[in-house]
Specification:
Elements: H1 2-11, H2 13-33, E1 38-39, E2 51-53, H3 61-70, E3 76-78, E4 82-85, H4 93-109
Antiparallel strand pairs: 1-2, 2-4, 3-4
Length: 122
Protein backbone atom coordinates (compact mmCIF):
# COMPACT_ATOMS: atom_id res chain seq x y z
CA UNK A 1 0.00 0.00 0.00
CA UNK A 2 2.90 2.37 0.65
CA UNK A 3 3.78 2.45 -3.07
CA UNK A 4 0.29 3.79 -3.79
CA UNK A 5 0.71 6.53 -1.20
CA UNK A 6 4.05 7.48 -2.72
CA UNK A 7 2.50 7.80 -6.19
CA UNK A 8 -0.30 9.97 -4.84
CA UNK A 9 2.17 12.19 -2.97
CA UNK A 10 4.30 12.51 -6.10
CA UNK A 11 1.34 13.41 -8.32
CA UNK A 12 -0.24 15.64 -5.69
CA UNK A 13 -3.76 15.32 -4.31
CA UNK A 14 -4.77 18.72 -5.74
CA UNK A 15 -3.53 17.80 -9.21
CA UNK A 16 -5.35 14.46 -9.02
CA UNK A 17 -8.60 16.19 -8.04
CA UNK A 18 -8.21 18.77 -10.82
CA UNK A 19 -7.65 16.02 -13.39
CA UNK A 20 -10.60 14.06 -12.01
CA UNK A 21 -12.86 17.10 -12.37
CA UNK A 22 -11.65 17.69 -15.91
CA UNK A 23 -12.25 14.05 -16.87
CA UNK A 24 -15.65 13.65 -15.26
CA UNK A 25 -16.97 17.00 -16.48
CA UNK A 26 -15.71 16.36 -20.02
CA UNK A 27 -17.33 12.93 -20.05
CA UNK A 28 -20.53 14.29 -18.53
CA UNK A 29 -20.82 16.92 -21.26
CA UNK A 30 -20.01 14.38 -23.99
CA UNK A 31 -22.63 11.92 -22.74
CA UNK A 32 -25.28 14.63 -22.39
CA UNK A 33 -24.59 15.76 -25.97
CA UNK A 34 -25.07 12.14 -27.06
CA UNK A 35 -28.50 12.07 -25.42
CA UNK A 36 -27.66 10.13 -22.26
CA UNK A 37 -28.80 11.17 -18.81
CA UNK A 38 -26.39 11.42 -15.89
CA UNK A 39 -27.37 10.59 -12.31
CA UNK A 40 -25.88 12.70 -9.58
CA UNK A 41 -25.03 16.33 -8.97
CA UNK A 42 -24.50 18.58 -11.98
CA UNK A 43 -22.17 20.78 -9.96
CA UNK A 44 -18.71 19.23 -10.29
CA UNK A 45 -17.72 20.54 -6.84
CA UNK A 46 -20.42 18.28 -5.34
CA UNK A 47 -19.37 15.18 -7.31
CA UNK A 48 -16.76 12.59 -6.57
CA UNK A 49 -14.68 10.89 -9.23
CA UNK A 50 -17.52 8.72 -10.54
CA UNK A 51 -20.28 9.25 -13.08
CA UNK A 52 -23.37 7.09 -13.41
CA UNK A 53 -24.89 7.08 -16.87
CA UNK A 54 -28.57 6.18 -17.08
CA UNK A 55 -29.85 3.62 -19.52
CA UNK A 56 -33.27 3.44 -21.13
CA UNK A 57 -35.83 1.13 -19.55
CA UNK A 58 -35.45 -1.39 -22.37
CA UNK A 59 -31.64 -1.50 -22.11
CA UNK A 60 -29.78 -4.07 -20.00
CA UNK A 61 -27.00 -2.70 -17.81
CA UNK A 62 -25.27 -6.07 -17.37
CA UNK A 63 -25.36 -6.61 -21.15
CA UNK A 64 -23.87 -3.15 -21.75
CA UNK A 65 -21.08 -3.97 -19.29
CA UNK A 66 -20.37 -7.27 -21.07
CA UNK A 67 -20.40 -5.58 -24.49
CA UNK A 68 -18.05 -2.86 -23.27
CA UNK A 69 -15.78 -5.49 -21.72
CA UNK A 70 -15.51 -7.19 -25.12
CA UNK A 71 -14.23 -3.83 -26.38
CA UNK A 72 -11.64 -3.61 -23.61
CA UNK A 73 -13.63 -1.07 -21.56
CA UNK A 74 -14.08 -1.93 -17.89
CA UNK A 75 -17.01 -0.34 -16.09
CA UNK A 76 -19.79 -1.66 -13.90
CA UNK A 77 -23.54 -1.46 -13.63
CA UNK A 78 -25.55 -0.29 -10.65
CA UNK A 79 -29.11 -1.68 -10.68
CA UNK A 80 -31.67 1.11 -10.77
CA UNK A 81 -29.00 3.64 -11.72
CA UNK A 82 -26.92 2.77 -14.79
CA UNK A 83 -23.37 2.37 -15.98
CA UNK A 84 -20.80 3.56 -13.46
CA UNK A 85 -17.58 5.05 -14.80
CA UNK A 86 -14.70 5.83 -12.46
CA UNK A 87 -11.79 7.52 -14.25
CA UNK A 88 -8.54 7.69 -12.30
CA UNK A 89 -5.55 9.99 -12.48
CA UNK A 90 -3.95 7.69 -15.04
CA UNK A 91 -7.05 7.70 -17.31
CA UNK A 92 -6.63 9.50 -20.64
CA UNK A 93 -9.25 11.78 -22.18
CA UNK A 94 -9.05 9.69 -25.36
CA UNK A 95 -10.05 6.60 -23.37
CA UNK A 96 -13.19 8.35 -22.16
CA UNK A 97 -13.95 9.55 -25.69
CA UNK A 98 -13.71 5.92 -26.80
CA UNK A 99 -16.06 4.88 -24.01
CA UNK A 100 -18.59 7.55 -25.00
CA UNK A 101 -18.44 6.49 -28.65
CA UNK A 102 -18.90 2.84 -27.66
CA UNK A 103 -21.93 3.70 -25.52
CA UNK A 104 -23.51 5.59 -28.42
CA UNK A 105 -22.78 2.76 -30.82
CA UNK A 106 -24.23 0.16 -28.45
CA UNK A 107 -27.38 2.21 -28.00
CA UNK A 108 -27.91 2.90 -31.70
CA UNK A 109 -27.02 -0.59 -32.97
CA UNK A 110 -28.47 -2.45 -29.97
CA UNK A 111 -25.38 -4.65 -30.22
CA UNK A 112 -25.56 -5.09 -26.45
CA UNK A 113 -28.46 -7.49 -27.04
CA UNK A 114 -25.91 -10.09 -28.18
CA UNK A 115 -24.63 -10.14 -24.60
CA UNK A 116 -27.99 -10.13 -22.84
CA UNK A 117 -27.94 -13.84 -22.03
CA UNK A 118 -24.21 -13.94 -21.23
CA UNK A 119 -24.31 -10.97 -18.87
CA UNK A 120 -24.28 -11.65 -15.16
CA UNK A 121 -27.47 -11.29 -13.20
CA UNK A 122 -27.63 -8.84 -10.30
Amino acid sequence: ASAGYEIILEAGVGAIRDWSLRLTEGLRQDMLERGFEIYGPQDSARRGGTLTIALNEDESGPAFVKSLERRGILVDHRPGAGIRVSPHFYTLEAELAGFAAAMSELRSSRDWEKDAEAAGVY
